[in-house]
Each structure stands twice: as structure tokens, then as C-alpha cells.
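Worked example

This section walks through a single chain of length 264. The input is the sequence exactly as stored; nothing has been trimmed or padded.
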Amino acid sequence: MAITINQLRKAIAETHEIVESLEHHFPQPILVEMGGKFLFRHREQNDLLLSYLKCVRAISSLNACVILLENGFVQEIGTLCRCIDDFNQDVLFLAGPLGENGLSEQQKRLVDEFFQEEFNDIDNPLSATQQRNRVPRSKVLAGISRISGQPVNPSDFQEVQRTVQQGFSGYVHGAYGHIMEIYGGSPDSLHYHMKGLSETPRITEWTEALSSYVYRTMIAVEVVAKRCTAVSAVEAIRAARACLEETLDVSNDPKKILDRIKRK
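Given that input, the structure is written out below as C-alpha cells.
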């Protein structure tokens, strides 16, 4: 049975509540003066805080996706899904130390770049010389594949993630084939649907597609809950994930799912 928008909304709401419950595990942001303005910033900045904030952003994006879905704007959902993938991958990348004595250089680089302010001179952004030192996404995926306990082999994992990213990047960059998905209608009224695709088969397709992003966000939230040693939150997110699995009627064994895809 296909998942409904209401079931999707319920799964997101449950995950949202769990992420909110984890907030007290982190010091509250304080107001700091920056360029004559007072902005909220964290005094203590580390990889666990980064992971939590990525979950916050993922939940915000999922809530936006539901609103877009209800109004038929599926292209825009694709753009947000591409972002959600990055958020969840960053959480998994930092789930365990990959260096000999803690975080690897790539993990440290990801954390440093995340907390780096956008401008080194907020009073004069046009003359700012701040440069970003981002970790390539390929390095993030390679790092995730090395974390112990992965249910699939590193090569398959990276290939699946690369394929998904490549497909959804078309929504971000406005690729031709992706834009043409909003063209159609009855033979006598073919046009570009720039006010959404409500009441079309696209809504069912994207409701199902979005469910996988909710599921992956649940995994990321569980990772953060474990790192916070928040037992009740871990139990709650596992229960919510089990409920979603039952709704989707899918195996929770990634290896079996991947084997089935490869056989096709």
C-alpha cells in the first residue's frame, strides 16, 4: 500500500519532536556582536553540535517538503531532497572517528568549515577575502563507507549515493530533463505547470520518494541521539522508524534491498 501524505506528515512530526528533545544536550546559543549586529552563536562548537544542527536543518526541510507536496511543487521538493542528503551524510560522516587518534583530518576540516563565518569582515562584505575549505562530497561518502558496521560493501554504497546525488542535482541546477517533467496535460492543453502538479500522478510518486528521505533522516537522528546517550530519544526514533517501515512494507536490511536493485 502506498504511503499517504498524512502518514508522511505524522512520521516527520514524530522525528521533529525527538530532535527538539535533544536540544537540551547542547549549550544554549548566546547573542554576540558581529558588525554592529547581535546574532545568536554557540560558544562551544564541535562535531556533535554540527551533527545536531544538520538534523535540525533536515527536519526544517522535510516540513517544507510536505507543504510543497500539498501544493504540487514537486520540482522544489527535489531540490530540498538533494540538500537533505548532504545533511544526513555529514551526520554519518562524523558518527565515528576515522583518524588514528580521533577525528581524521577530513572530519576536522568539515567541522572547521561548517563553523566558519561567511565573511571575515561583516562590515564590508564586498572586500571580504574569506575562502571556504569544503570537504569534497566524494571524500564524505568514502569516509562513511569506512565506518565499521556498514551493512553493504564500500563500493556499492558509494555508487548508490553517487547515482542518487547525480539524479537529484538536476533539480538544483535546473537540468533540461528535470524541467520537462512539469510539461504535460491533456492533448488540447499541453503546457508548463508552473503553479504545481496537484492532482497528477506526480504527487503519489513524490510522496513515496519523500518517504525515503524521512527514513534516512530518522537514521541520522538516531545517530545523534546515541552520541548524546539519550536513551529515551533512541528508543523513540527506533519506534518511529519501525512504524514507517511497516507503513512502507519494506525490509530494513539495506543489503537485501541493494541486492534486489542490482538484480534488476
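What to look for: Confidence is low (pLDDT under 50) at residues 260-264.
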